[in-house]
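One chain given next:
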Amino acid sequence: MRTLQTARKAIFAVALLLCVPACFANEVDASADAAVVSTPATRGLFSSWFGGKAPKVDATVVDSDDLDADAPRPLMSTAGPRASDLVVGALGLLGIAYRLGGNTPTSGFDCSGLVRYVFQTAVGLDLPRRAEEISRIGSKIDRSDLKPGDLVFYKTLRKTFSHVGIYLGNNRFIHAPSSGGAVRVDDMTQSYWTARFNGARRVGH
């Protein structure tokens, strides 16, 4: 049990390292290629879990052998209060097992179940149950205009809008991937996701 808790803490810390610069940064080194955040919360987090050292991050996604083109990186934006609630709520569910039809932490999540649960608990919005239905609500936005808390859609089952996740910032999104997997953070610029990107929507923030 202790090993599992430690692993989940490590995963959560890595996700915060990837996402916090776009969401909650208050001390950013503008000279760096990637923004580096230093806040009291993150300093305490890494101090208690990693002896004061931020973990090295390997964001490589090996989800398919169908890898092809690269994609340009979208702009980073600062999240508003509701979007921040969505990001924090989603990150708290990292590591929960995938389950088709699942929509609670106890049962596990599929992709739309995760998104629906986060929006319900974080900002009090009830979304449709299926990814394709969710793709019809809110406002359509360009990839270059993505902000934390936006929804990103993918064509993963040979039909449009068959997969959905929540954008975190810095080209990362959180989602429940597939059978045998667990809620995780992936890099949108990986060629697997770039080739299947279907669009984005902004709902309730």
Observations:
- The beta strands are 103-104, 108-109, 139-141, 151-154, 163-169, 172-175, 184-187, 197-202.
